[in-house]
Design goal:
217 residues; Rossmann fold; 7 helices; 5 strands
Length: 217
């Protein structure tokens, strides 16, 4: 248990981040959630993140504004069409350039500012769909960078980047979350929901979600 310790939780509003928040709470951390309005195609995930954060009574929930649409380069931040032909090999067009580097950098600044030394992120290398910034090598490298590039790190008060879902399948993640009482009806996974917020059911995120719950049910 880490009772009394403070942690920053990257909370997107999806399955993985909701599970990570529940894990951090179980481990006894005082949790501060951090979400991003980065110009993504829809606001549904931010609404989900707010609901999840409120449900778990986090110490604070910061929604930071970024404008990643300024350079685009992704189906989530530009007019590139979201693929709906099934999962494919390679890095998909829904990859947002350097997104997790950007997000973790903001989380690191938040953590150092409030005295937190633990950052939780819901990256997953098993069902990661080709995203290079969801691999263990990246997490290890970022943690090293965090401790080289911060006042706290060079003074020996080091940061730890926690990625508890890294080697878990989506089924294992959901199973663990259900054990912790996560209400997945609050979560949002779809890359391209309609104007009413209904999931498309065909994008990569929807397919992974549907397949995982089908195995559990």
């Amino acid at each position: 248990m880490n009772t009394g310790s403070t942690a920053i939780i990257l909370l997107s509003g999806g399955i993985d981040s909701a599970t990570v928040l529940a894990i951090a709470i179980e481990q006894g951390y005082e949790c501060h959630a951090l979400s991003f309005n980065y110009g993504q195609r829809h606001q549904n995930e931010l609404l989900a993140a707010k609901e999840i954060a409120n449900h778990h009574n986090v110490a604070s929930h910061v929604i930071s504004s970024l404008e990643l649409t300024a350079w685009g380069g992704s189906a989530l931040t530009s007019d590139i069409e979201v693929p709906k032909d099934g999962l494919t090999e390679g890095i998909p067009v829904t990859y947002v350039p350097a997104r997790n580097i950007i997000f973790l950098s903001h989380a690191l600044g938040f953590a150092e500012a409030i005295g937190a030394r633990d950052i939780f992120i819901g990256v997953n290398a098993v069902d990661y769909s080709g995203y290079p910034d969801c691999r263990g090598e990246f997490i290890t490298a970022f943690e090293q960078t965090a401790n080289l590039a911060t006042k706290a790190g060079v003074e020996g008060d080091e940061f730890t980047i926690h990625a508890p879902l890294l080697q878990m399948s989506k089924v294992e993640i959901i199973t663990r979350g259900l054990e912790l009482g996560v209400d997945y009806s609050m979560t949002q996974s779809c890359y391209d929901p309609d104007e009413s917020g209904n999931p498309c059911g065909e994008c990569d995120a929807c397919r992974l979600r549907t397949a995982a719950f089908a195995q559990i049910n």
